Structure formats: structure tokens, C-alpha cells
């Protein structure tokens, strides 16, 4: 007893320290006891009360976090994704050598109300789109690729002052040039129709195939009006475009597989 | 000061300091390395004449009060017990005799800056040392933990000194 009384301070310390250390190492078991339920209820109430007050001080930060979270979630919506369906369709034939391949693309931007109109599509160099390729819809003309990025391309629409398409009369293969004078997006103009060519309403104009851009026989439009020139050597006509440029959803890009061959041939001709 | 008033003051301080610790100080982020544990001010201010058993039991309780809030049962208790255990030895070591202790409990005003710095500084270090090494509990983080102990001790000591000047101003 004398020993206890003399050293009770150290002994009590060791006892309590042992208890606390064992609490520290066995706390997971302690959490299952009823007493823990009582203490955590108590601390929970205090923490919640304090949190109810203190959260007003962090409203700005909370707001910012929520906005960031919203942006993060927005970026995971289907709309935020670039759809890289790099399918291209072509017809293979054992007798005929394949010359044209078509890449489908979604129009993501389009205008018809400006003098110079362009379209943007969701296919780019990664899907095989290159500059100067022709763009059609069905068998109707749309325009020409003028600028390519990895995932997107710009198309110069037929509705542009720089668009000048080489076409021909379907009935007699007479060559004409088709342009867009501005104004109504449904109508273009046919210039330089030779005088001897009989022109009448309803004549179909198709692509000539002379340029490297479009295959032969793509529909441009039909003659809706014409004037017979008296002094000049050429007649003029107004053409109703086959394509409704205001309702383009998907377009097809024409890949001319023999283009390089043709260009190389022209180059040798020029150099000689 | 009457005994009842001493008891009342200490009981009030007990709850107030635990609340300040768990509701305010534990939520303050100071670079991730500094965690002030100001609640041990309660142990520092206990009267000189407190029985050893009561000192240890109160140390146990104040540590448990913080532990239930931080879900670290045993960690603060162990640190507070070590601090409470060391307290009488520290007082005996730095004081010239029982007569040199003025007033009921340690204070900067009565004992002077040097005495109080030794007293609170060493006890805070003991507490923080036990606490942070129990918290880390691996020797690969030995030096990081040491740095944390030192930085946090300085910060706690600053809070204690500020409180001493603020609540117990020197009488003129």
C-alpha cells in the first residue's frame, strides 16, 4: 500500500496510457459498441449545427465548385463528343476500276444568307478529307473542300462568289459554267451558253467531269429561265439548283482515287 | 480566488477549448504541415495544487473530448496523458521552490515570460511529439513528422502566448 501511495501518479499514468493506446489501436472494434453510437450522435449534432452556420461563409467557394462540376458533367454529355465514325462507303468492282470513294460527314455549320457561304463538316484529315475535294449530297452538288483540320473541314458552298462549276447540258453535253449571283439561294446563273445551243426550260445541267473535283453527271440544277442575247455570242440562263442548301444535314465527300495520277500527267505535260 | 470559482473557470475552459479546437482550429488549413492544438491550454492552466490523479483524469477527458470529434480515439488522449504526467516534473524542474509560484495557476503575468516559455514550450512539445508520431506511426516519415511537430508546436505556443496577453493582461 505504501508503494501504491508513493507511486500512484506513475501507476495511474501507466494505466490510463495503456487504456488510451489500446483504444488507439483497437478503435475499429470500439466503433461497434453502443457507447460509440451515443458519442457520435452527440458530436454529429454539434458538427451539424456548426456546419449549418459555417457553410454560409463558404457559399462562394461552394458555388464555384458546383459550376465546375456542372461544366465537368456537361463535357460528358453526348453532345460534347466528337463522333468519329470514320466509315467511308465505296463500290468495288472487278471489271471497272474503282475511281471514286465517298466519305459521309455531318454538317455542323451552314449559311445561305451571305454572299459568300461556307459549310463546316465534322470530318477532317484524320478521316481522309483533303483540300479541293468535291462535296455532294446524293447525286446533287454542294461545294468543295477549302480548308481541313484534323477533325473538321470547311466547304466552300455553291452559294459563293468564288464558286464556279464546270457543267454541261445533259441532253447534248454542251459545256457551261454555273455561278451564283447572290440573292435567292435557290437560283444560280448559267453563263456562256453558246448561241447555237438550243436552250429551253427544264433542261438539266450536270457536272462535266472536266475538273478533278467532281465526277461526271452530278446534278447541278434545271434551267428555269433564259434570255437569248441579241448582240453577244452567248446566251444566259437562270438555273434552279437541285440541292436545297438550306436543309443540308449530311453530305458526302468525293475522293478521287486517280486524282494524283491525273495531276502528275498534267505536270509532265506542262514541263515539256 | 475561491475554489468554486476555480472549478467553474476550468469547467468552462474545458468545453470552450474543445469546441474551439474541433470547430475552428481543426478546420483551418495552414499549408498542410501546421496543425495547432490549442486545446491543451486547458492542461497548462490547471491549478498548481491539483491532485495528480485529477490532473491525469482531466487530461484523459480533454483528450477524449477532441478525439470523439476527430474520430481518432486514443490519439489525443495519449498525448494529453503524457503532457499531464510531465507537468509536475516540468514545474518542479524550472521553479526555484514552492514559494516562487505565485497565484493559483501558471500564468505569464505572475511567473514572467522566461518561466512561462519554458513551461508551456516544453509541455506543448511533449504533447505534439506524442500526437504527431502516433498519427504518422511510421518511421519513413520521421523527418516530416519532426518538422510538423516543431512547426505546430511553435504555432500552438504563439496562440497560448497571445491568449495570455489578451485574457490576463499585466496589472499596472
Reading side by side through the largest sheet of chain A, how are the strands ordered? Answer: 2-3-6-5-4-13
- What is the radius of gyration of chain A computed over CA atoms, rounded to a whole number of angstroms? 38 Å
Count of individual beta strands of chain A:
13
Total count of strands of chain B: 0
Percentage of residues assigned to helices of chain A: 25-40%
Biggest interface and which pair forms it?
Answer: A-B, 24 and 24 residues
Instruction: Indicate the percent of residues in helices of chain B.
Output: 55-70%
Radius of gyration of chain B over all CA atoms, rounded: 16 Å
Topology-level CATH name of the largest domain in chain A: Thrombin, subunit H
Q: Major β-sheet of chain A, in short?
A: 6 strands, antiparallel, barrel
* Average of per-residue pLDDT values of chain A: 80
Q: Would you state the CATH class of chain B?
A: Mainly Alpha
Terminus-to-terminus distance of chain A: 123 Å
- Give the distance, in angstroms, between the N- and C-terminal Cα atoms of chain B: 20 Å
Annotation field: number of helices of chain A:
5
Order of helices and strands of chain A: HHHHEEEEEEEEEEEEEH
What does this protein look like?
The complex is a heterodimer of chains A (about 270) and B (about 170). Helix content of chain A is about 30%, strand content about 30%. In chain A, the strands form 2 sheets. Chain A has a 6-stranded antiparallel β-barrel with strand order 2-3-6-5-4-13. A 6-stranded antiparallel β-barrel of chain A has the order 7-8-9-12-11-10. In chain A, about 25% of the residues are buried. With about 270 residues, chain A is α+β, with helices and mostly antiparallel strands. Chain B has one domain: Arp2/3 complex 21 kDa subunit ARPC3 (Orthogonal Bundle), CATH 1.10.1760. Chain B starts with a helix and ends in a 5-residue tail after the last helix. Helix content of chain B is about 70%, strand content about 0%. The longest helix of chain B has 26 residues. Chain B has about 170 residues and is mainly alpha-helical. The interface between A and B is medium-sized, with 24 and 24 residues.
Amino acid at each position: 500500500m505504501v508503494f501504491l501511495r508513493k507511486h500512484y501518479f506513475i501507476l495511474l499514468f501507466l494505466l490510463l496510457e495503456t487504456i488510451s493506446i489500446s483504444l488507439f489501436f483497437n478503435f475499429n472494434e470500439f466503433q461497434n459498441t453502443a457507447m460509440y453510437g451515443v458519442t457520435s450522435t452527440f458530436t454529429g449534432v454539434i458538427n451539424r449545427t456548426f456546419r449549418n452556420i459555417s457553410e454560409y461563409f463558404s457559399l462562394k467557394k461552394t458555388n464555384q465548385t458546383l459550376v465546375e462540376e456542372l461544366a465537368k458533367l456537361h463535357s460528358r454529355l453526348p453532345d460534347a463528343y466528337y463522333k468519329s465514325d470514320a466509315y467511308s462507303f465505296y463500290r468495288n468492282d472487278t471489271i471497272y476500276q474503282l475511281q471514286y470513294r465517298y466519305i459521309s460527314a455531318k454538317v455542323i455549320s451552314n449559311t445561305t444568307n451571305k454572299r459568300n457561304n461556307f459549310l463546316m463538316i465534322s470530318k477532317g484529315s484524320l478521316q481522309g478529307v483533303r483540300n479541293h475535294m468535291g462535296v455532294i449530297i446524293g447525286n446533287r452538288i454542294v461545294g468543295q473542300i477549302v480548308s481541313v483540320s484534323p477533325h473538321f473541314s470547311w466547304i466552300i458552298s455553291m452559294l459563293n462568289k468564288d464558286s464556279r462549276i464546270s457543267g454541261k447540258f445533259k441532253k447534248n453535253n454542251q459545256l457551261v459554267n454555273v455561278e451564283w449571283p447572290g440573292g435567292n439561294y435557290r437560283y444560280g446563273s448559267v453563263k456562256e451558253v453558246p448561241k447555237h445551243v438550243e436552250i429551253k426550260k427544264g433542261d438539266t445541267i450536270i457536272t462535266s467531269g472536266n475538273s478533278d473535283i467532281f465526277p461526271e453527271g452530278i446534278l447541278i440544277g434545271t434551267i428555269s429561265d433564259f434570255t437569248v442575247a441579241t448582240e453577244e455570242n452567248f446566251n444566259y440562263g437562270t438555273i434552279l439548283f437541285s440541292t436545297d442548301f438550306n436543309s443540308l444535314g449530311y453530305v458526302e465527300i468525293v475522293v478521287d482515287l486517280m486524282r494524283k495520277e491525273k495531276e502528275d500527267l498534267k505536270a509532265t505535260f506542262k514541263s515539256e | 480566488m475561491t475554489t468554486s470559482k476555480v472549478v467553474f473557470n476550468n469547467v468552462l475552459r474545458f468545453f470552450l477549448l474543445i469546441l474551439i479546437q474541433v470547430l475552428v482550429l481543426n478546420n483551418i488549413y495552414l499549408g498542410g504541415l501546421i496543425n495547432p492544438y490549442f486545446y491543451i491550454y486547458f492542461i497548462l492552466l490547471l491549478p498548481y495544487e491539483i491532485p495528480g490523479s485529477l490532473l491525469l483524469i482531466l487530461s484523459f477527458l480533454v483528450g477524449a473530448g477532441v478525439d470523439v470529434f476527430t474520430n481518432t480515439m486514443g490519439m489525443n488522449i495519449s498525448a494529453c496523458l503524457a503532457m499531464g504526467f510531465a507537468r509536475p516534473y516540468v514545474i518542479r524542474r524550472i521553479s526555484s521552490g514552492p514559494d516562487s509560484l505565485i497565484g493559483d495557476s501558471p500564468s505569464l503575468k505572475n511567473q514572467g515570460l522566461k518561466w512561462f516559455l519554458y513551461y508551456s514550450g516544453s509541455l506543448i512539445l511533449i504533447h505534439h511529439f506524442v500526437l504527431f508520431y502516433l498519427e504518422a506511426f511510421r518511421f519513413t516519415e520521421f523527418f516530416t513528422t519532426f518538422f510538423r511537430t516543431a512547426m505546430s508546436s511553435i504555432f500552438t505556443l504563439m496562440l497560448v502566448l497571445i491568449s495570455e496577453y489578451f485574457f490576463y493582461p499585466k496589472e499596472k
